[in-house]
Design brief:
alpha+beta, four-stranded mixed beta sheet, three-stranded antiparallel beta sheet, globular
Length: 188
C-alpha cells in the first residue's frame, strides 16, 4: 500500500510516470504528486547515487580535494562542478560516514554493475565496481554499452584505489566481461 509522504493518507492513485520512467502517484487528500523516491535522500539528484558515493569515497577515504574529484570524474565522462561535489558532501556525508564507520576497510569481494541511466535527457551506461559492503571503487559513464573496454579500465582504477586484487568477482554476466576479468588477473 502506498502512503502520501506529506499527509500520510492512503487515498492515493497512480498518476502516470515521471521523465525517468518511475511510477508517479497523486494523493486524493492533499493533491500532492510523488514517486517512490520522493522522500529518499537522493530525490531530485541529477546523477545516480553510485557516482555520488564514489566522489565521497575519493574525498573522505583518499583525501582528494573537491576540484580534484571534479577532474577525476571528468576523465570518466562525468562532468560536474566542484560546487556540486561540495553539495553532495553536505547532503550525503551522514549516509557515507555511516557506511564508512561500519566498514573502514575494503572487502576482497567485488561486484560489477552495468546499468542504463537517463542523465541530462540522454541514455548513458553507468558501469561501476563496488565491494560487497557497498563502497564504490570505480565508476565510468559511457554513451555506448561496450563492456570489453569499460571493465578493464574499471578494474585498473579499483586496483589502484584499494591496492589489492579481489578474491571473488560477482556480477560478471557476459562472456566478454568474464574474459576481461581473466585478462586482468593475468596482467596484475
Amino acid at each position: 500500500m502506498v502512503f502520501c509522504p506529506v499527509c500520510y493518507s492512503n487515498k492515493v492513485r497512480k498518476y502516470g510516470f515521471d521523465r525517468k520512467g518511475r511510477q508517479k502517484h497523486r494523493c486524493n487528500a492533499c493533491g500532492k504528486q510523488f514517486t517512490d523516491k520522493t522522500d529518499s535522500v537522493s530525490s531530485g539528484m541529477r546523477y545516480p547515487k553510485a557516482i555520488i558515493m564514489y566522489a565521497l569515497n575519493l574525498h573522505h577515504r583518499h583525501g582528494y580535494p573537491l576540484r580534484g574529484i571534479r577532474e577525476r570524474l571528468s576523465q570518466l565522462g562525468i562532468h560536474v562542478s566542484h560546487v556540486a561535489v561540495h553539495d553532495w558532501n553536505k547532503k550525503f556525508k551522514p549516509e557515507f560516514m555511516g557506511l564508512y564507520m561500519r566498514h573502514n576497510d575494503y572487502a576482497r569481494r567485488w561486484q560489477v554493475n552495468i546499468t542504463k541511466e537517463n542523465i541530462n535527457g540522454k541514455q548513458r551506461y553507468l558501469s561501476s565496481i563496488s565491494d560487497v559492503n557497498g563502497a564504490i571503487l570505480s565508476v565510468k559513464l559511457t554513451a555506448h554499452d561496450s563492456p570489453e573496454q569499460t571493465i578493464n579500465t574499471l578494474l585498473k582504477e579499483a586496483l589502484k584505489l584499494t591496492g589489492f586484487r579481489p578474491e571473488v568477482m560477482l556480477g560478471a554476466t557476459t562472456d566478454i566481461m568474464q574474459e576481461q576479468i581473466r585478462k586482468f588477473y593475468k596482467e596484475s
